Amino acid sequence: MTSAHTVDIAGRAVGEGQPVFVVAEAGINHNGDVGLARKLIDAAAAAGCDAVKGQKRTVDVVYSPEELARPRENPFGPTNGDLKRGLELPVEVHRELDEHANSLGLRWTASAWDEQSLEDVASWNPPFLKIASASLTDDALLRAHRRYDLPVVLSTGMSTLAEIDHAVEVLGTTQLILLHCTSTYPSQPRELNLRAIPVLAERYRLPVGYSGHERGIATSVAAVAFGACVIERHLTLDRSMWGSDQSASLEPTEFTDLVAAIRTIEQAFGDGVKKVYDSEIPVREKLRRVG
């Protein structure tokens, strides 16, 4: 049974008082290679993640003809359109990746950037629907997400409180999680503003997580201490690989360390009641003066 401050994701309560839900953002780090996408899922499973996420776009809907025709040298051709189409995985491949993730005890989802892509994502019954920060002001797409009986996770990067207010009003608060986020790749620590996590939780009375694009794991672990119930980080097999998101991603060993650190800090929270532990009694008897 979930409370007002928890959301049910595939039978698991996520939110206040619950273990942190860790999402590996494979994103477009597969570089259009299905084999690489499967390896990213393997790495996420080995690291102890709870879910893996990709992205889904209908390229000709999301981008204007002018943007697609813009010159941009890349492995797929000379234009930005060649790049965007080359990075896009068909829905059938996404379903295969979901099956592969399931075989490893994970779930696969994807952020949909348009209504057709959203229909495609919903077709494999993902554990939740993810709305990217770039789509936070797209009211039509927000409303379309609520046609499906699935939890919604909304990133809030590059957004004002007024814009978030409006997005929450459009989406409603049922089965909704917000992610605090700074949309620079990679983000600088001075711009992460982790104190915004409890501010968002108090303002919206919703579970709030953290989607990070910084280097390293320390600040993402700190986000848990500030109350983040979901941690989402980009995953790459190697930051030196070609791709726009690779430099803001964690490599597999770093992701493993991140998950381990999160589980350690969860144990360290305790219940807030000051007490003397049994392990302290011999030390107290040895070190304290009798008087």
Describe this entry's structure for a reader:
There is one protein chain. The protein is of the alpha/beta class and 291 residues long. 38% of the residues lie in helices and 20% in strands. It is built from 12 helices and 12 strands. It has an 8-stranded parallel beta sheet with strand order 7-4-3-12-11-10-9-8. It has a two-stranded antiparallel sheet with strand order 1-2. The protein has a two-stranded antiparallel ribbon with strand order 5-6. Helix 10 (218-225) packs parallel to helix 11 (252-269). The longest helix is centred in the C-terminal third of the chain and has 18 residues, at 252-269. The radius of gyration is 21 Å and the shape is globular. The model has no long low-confidence stretch (mean pLDDT 96).
Average residue pLDDT: 96
String of helices and strands:
EEEHEHHEEHHEHEHEHEHEHEHH
Strand content: 15-25%
Distance between the termini: 52 Å
What is the helix fraction of residues, given as a range? Answer: 25-40%
CA gyration radius, whole angstroms: 21 Å
Query: Order of strands across the biggest sheet?
Result: 7-4-3-12-11-10-9-8
Morphology: globular
State the major sheet: 8 strands, parallel
- Class per helix and strand makeup: alpha/beta
Low-confidence stretches: none
Number of strands: 12
Count of alpha and pi helical runs: 12
